[in-house]
Amino acid sequence: MDRLLTGDQLSGAVTKPFLVAAPTQAILDSWPQEAQKFGLEHLLDHIDFTTYRSLSKLLGSGHYHKLYLDECHALKDSHEPGLKAHAARKKSILGLTGTPPAQANSEKGRLVATYCPILVDYTTDEAVLAGLLNDYQLVVHRLPLSAVRDYQITFKSGSQFTTSERENYHYWTTRLANAAQDALPVETLRILRMQALMNYPSKGRYMALLASQFSEKVLLFTCNQQQAEEQAEHTYHSKNKHSQANLEKFNTGQIQRLACVAQLSEGINIPNLRVGIIWHAFGNERKAAQRIGRLLRLNPDETATVHLLMYQDTIDEHWVAQALAAFDPAKISYVDATMVAG
Asked: What is the pLDDT of residues 95-108, one digit of tens each?
């Protein structure tokens, strides 16, 4: 933060020449916390903070010399008038993101390329070496698909069918192999196979077993709200009105387990969090980096451990390899997890 702000003059007619914008208040709240952590509280006197909802209104005043866009991949077309006016005054914009837009022609891709094009790519391992993030270990748990015929599928009609994870995965693999003759497009078949893998129950059983081995804080990343509710008494997701209260309890150490869905990945830092378990990799290194990043806010001399669950001999292996491609291979280990298989 010091390098971001002290490169500009901290004097002039405007009391607070810098504006920091972020999608949510929770992200903005982390700035003073980080400033205190690194001994930079003096810079806060020169900064105004706002959520993206009020960004255009504040930029319209023309008071700010420099704009910092935290999580700039969350920009929308509605923010462009303010951004355009700011840029027209020859004022600076610095974008910060851990998940650059994947599609250059998308709304987000166009806005990032226009107003804060990516010039510097700073990896997780570079930040660890610089002492900005604590060290980490990634442990991939290889799970075999269960052969027990206890996996129940419910159709839209209400009828049910019982099979095994192994048989069901073979079914989707066969349909994909014969996609040219299938009534559904190949992309739809891939999505259905992914949804099947995300919902097999053996990962849930293993996650619960693994979490029970730790007495300290454990953050559980699940794929959906039902899985989160099954994994922990306290959860964080959009349908839970107690989510924020649960997060605060987790932050302060009143509870040691919190199960969440993807939304906790962005912009939320949890003190003293050393253990995380991820249900599904999504084959996306950006999503993986954000989730793993929740555990990289310890003191620089501490180490966090992230456990990632993977079905062996399935497409899940490829997704995990993609998700971890940007991380140091020396910090990744693999263990076999056979105790939950049927």
From this structure: 998 778 878 889 99
Laid out side by side, the sheet with 218-221 consists of 235-236, 257-260, 218-221, 275-278, 303-311, 135-143, 332-336
Residue 341 DSSP code: -
Q: Residue 13: beta bridge partners?
A: none
Residues 295-316 pLDDT 10s: 666 566 788 899 999 999 999 9
Q: What is the SS3 assignment for 216-241? A: CCEEEECCCHHHHHHHCCCEECCCCC
CA 276, CA 249: separation in Å to the nearest integer? 17
Are 307 and 210 in contact, with CB atoms under 8 Å apart? yes
- Tokens read off for 332: 């990744």
Q: Which domains does the chain have, with CATH numbers?
A: 2-121 (3.40.50.300), 127-144+203-336 (3.40.50.300), 151-198 (no CATH)
Question: Nearest-CA neighbor of 31 among 15, 43, 14, 17?
Answer: 43
